[in-house]
Amino acid sequence: MQFKDLPIQKKLLRIVFLINGTVLLVTCVTFFLYEYYIFRKSIVEKLSTIGKIISANSSAALAFDSPDDAKEILSAIKTEPDIVAAYLYDKDGTLFAQYNAGSEKPIFPAELEARGYRFVHSRLEGFEPVMQDNRQLGTLYLKSHLGALYNRLRLYGLIVATVLMLSFVLTYVLVRILKNGISAPILSLAKTALIVSEKQDYSIRAVKMGKDELGSLTDAFNHMLDQIQEQNQSLKEFTQTLEQKVSERTRQLESVNKELEGFSYSVSHDLRAPLRAIIGFTAILEEDYTSKLDEEAMRITTVIKNNSAKMGQLIDDLLAFSRISRQDIAKTQINMTSIVNEVKDDLATQYDISKIQWAIQPLPTITANTNLIRQVWVNLISNAVKYSSKKDDPYIEIGSFLKDKQTAFFVRDNGVGFDQKYSDKLFKVFQRLHKTEDYEGTGIGLALVEKIVARQGGDVWADAEPGKGACFYFSLPV
Amino acid sequence: MRQDRVDLLLVEDNAYDAELTIRHLKKNNMANNLFHVKDGEEALEFIFATGRFADQRDLMQRPKIILLDIQMPKISGIEVLQKIKEDPRTQSIPVVILTSSKEDPDIQKCYALGANSYIVKPVNFESFAEAIVNLGFYWLLLNQPPLDKP
To answer: Is residue A321 part of a domain?
Structure first.
């Protein structure tokens, strides 16, 4: 785990330990080294002093050439357990007397040197000239082991180790006791934040524990919660108001719809009755009073009947048109090819489609309302049939393609076509670009198509050439 | 005056619709035993031999078919239908509902109440006439009526 991911308390602990440890270590090592240096110096001084004393004492033995005396003087060294060897040489460099402590193997210096002490391997050795009246009578060689030094060092090492350990323990204890000052507020804040977000309860507030930066953080945190609570509240109120408005609006719409439904029903019923009478009685005239009606009168009755029939058709179409907006749109998967074929077969009962050459491409399946889509096909295909009925070789093509993320379908005929520049009027209610005498129709069919397709999120358009034919397109979202 | 046997009872408030219907039935020789009442009240009195028909009618001489217009003032067609189908004596009389619009919200109700058939009065007279004649032919000639006696 990376340091930055450790919990705060562990971080604190490690930092304090690190600092503590480093500081202590540096201090101890410094002292250690200092002591070592000082102690070495003192050892050298001590040996040097002993050397001086012994050389002074041995000058008489050398002067009087008395090795036994010299040996006796040397042997006094044994009171100094650190000194392991003392060799006295005369002025020619010959060994005059020697002292070897205990089990130490005598190792004689290779050559005699002038006065001086030095550390060699793990020994301190030195040369002290024996003088008398400024004449060198000989040289004293001393060798001391560093036992004392090593003991000292060991002692110091032990002290350092103990101090370090104690301080670690102390640090740990103190950190544990004092951590609350730093980490407690942080942990408390973190915990509060966690609870707030888990329970989504924005009424909880964090406890401020001090006036330091954490205190300001706690204040800021609490302030944020205040704001959130407030915003939540106003959001809730707003949603409620909105819901109220929506349900009110829905109620209004529903009642308007109901009114419209009732209205359409009465319209259809009440408009149709007199129409029935007009048509029926005109028929009576035609049938029962034929003898009393001349040609012109018969023509007039025909006009009356035709116009009444047209009015009936208009009533039906208008009602169908208004019904579209009131319907719920239930969408299902629609097999366009089968619907087109159904419509084509249905049309065969109304129109003579035997002469028509059909080219129906395979059509994709889409999701939409079956009845409405069927209505679209009925209108478009019956239009194509109607407007190509006067051609000798009527030809109707039906297909589909992709356009702008929608599936587009088209019905193309080679009929009478229309003038392209009026094409946007085509889809309006009651707009017709041809005369009723030439092609029957009420002018609602295409408006119905446009309304249905628009309601499902699609588009309609058309292009044509007078005399050559027309192509009507509608697209639906995929 | 005792009524002659009535085979077809036409309940229609619209005088013109009635006239057209009767005229066409006459043309096809189906209007011999036809009676026309102009509203629901008269229809019920006729069927149940009450009110103005108390002495004139024998309830058990039931018509072979009742053509019943739905939209009528005062007592509506639905009420008449209900009363006819509720009474065990008149239950079995076939009732054909006439309406001027196929969006009539009452169509389900009519079938639920026991209407035998439901016909839209088309605007186009030819179709209307044809429907009437088919009706007459079917119910007056083809269909086997329930027995007169209970």
So the answer is: no
